[in-house]
Amino acid sequence: MKKTNDLGKDNISSLVFRLAIPTMIAQLVNVLYSIVDRMYIGNIPEIGDIALAGVGVCGPIVTLLSSFGTLVGLGGSILMAMKMGEQKKKEAEQILANSFLMLLILSGTLTLIFLLSKDFLLYQFGASDVTFPYANTYMTIYTAGTFFALLSIGLNYFITCQGYSMVSMTTVIIGAISNIILDSVFVFGFHMGVAGAAIATVIAQMFSCLFALIFLFRKQVPIRITFGGYSKAIMKKIISIGLSPFLILASDSIIIIIMNAVLQYSGGPSEGDLLISAATIVQSYMLLITGPLVGITGGTQAIISYNYGAARADRIKQAERIILMLCLAFTSFMFLVSRSVPQYFVRIFTTDTSLTHLSVWGIKAFTLGVIPLSFQYALIDGLTALGRTKTALALSLFRKSSYVVYMLLLTSLFTAKSAFYAEPLSDTICAIVTTTVFLKVFNKHLNARCKNANIQEINS
């Protein structure tokens, strides 16, 4: 397969769009098949709303598991892209080999740990006696397929960072289409309910994993999977770069877990499960915003990392501007959608009047700050791509900790429903902080890299 994107020479505007759009579509499709799972579950006769609350408790745990794929995949791919920019192919291959071994080890270890601890986790993170059976069924089956999920997520980063954005998109679409088809077969055709939805997800992830493996073992790929050259120093470097995005994703999961627990406690026996069902629908809607945002900023990180390795500050600055504008255009559109038609989204999950009204209100509250959210994603992912992971992590954790503080404060002062306003408060305030810090460190960091590259060139 011919490589279509030259990260060091192609026009930046067209390069950003060629990488961002397929990855954005892939993330959107990925989100859709997560939503389809919940949609099918929510429409199971008689038990749909309760089963949806049970799966909602599983959601953040699933995301937490997936974030380990990002730890290795994003950390390794950023480091590999830098080496590619420096024209060091052997070192790039060694990074991929080490990353592949790490993904294999992590997949096996996490499967065992989560299977042994899932009952405790589910109860601690918002499951009630009513919703636990559904949460337990889904979590047990999903965890058994963790191996395929982590490999698929992790390896796809190494496909994207080599410029194969369409192949990366195909990896996700294969899984998404498979899941949508298999969901209908297992949930309603075989009447397997929540178990059927989980089985469909695992099989779909298996298909995505196999596709990614086959592609990265091809001889035609510039940097393909090889064996040997394993190094603790390289593994530590991969983890040091991947730790920031990992903690960002993991903290997202923890926040949802905390929110479910707060809603269950504040709502009490009468409202707790209803609030968690509504929060599950609202969070599903938010994935339609954050998923494509991750696609835009994550899919284009290879441009920044490659040109950072090549010491091309001009291309990095141009790319960052275009990425931010693309994010702002998307979030502005989604803000308008959120104000006008959220009821149509809610209706695919439930026909219950109380749950519908609560969920529509929740979407409108949650999305008040989505436009400022663009700065958070574009600038933090930009800093991560430059290897400035400690700054990116600090900014992200500031936003997450602020969210928790606002949520606890609002629910203690007002009603349980007020927890939904913590999101826009955090998004708006933290966007201002992130932009301020970015403007102070971005140029200094680039200048230091270019100065170092010039010194090395003189010495050589």
Automatic annotation (TrEMBL):
Q: Is this entry keyworded Chloroplast?
A: no
Which compartments is it annotated to reside in? Cell membrane
A cellular component term from Gene Ontology for this protein is: plasma membrane
Residue ranges annotated as transmembrane are 12-35, 50-74, 95-117, 137-159, 166-188, 194-217, 238-265, 285-310, 322-341, 361-380, 401-419, 425-442
Q: Which GO terms describe its molecular function?
A: antiporter activity; xenobiotic transmembrane transporter activity
- Its membrane topology: Multi-pass membrane protein
The protein in question is named Multidrug export protein MepA
**Where does this protein come from, organism-wise?**
Lachnoclostridium phytofermentans (strain ATCC 700394 / DSM 18823 / ISDg)
Taxonomic lineage from the root: Bacteria, Bacillati, Bacillota, Clostridia, Lachnospirales
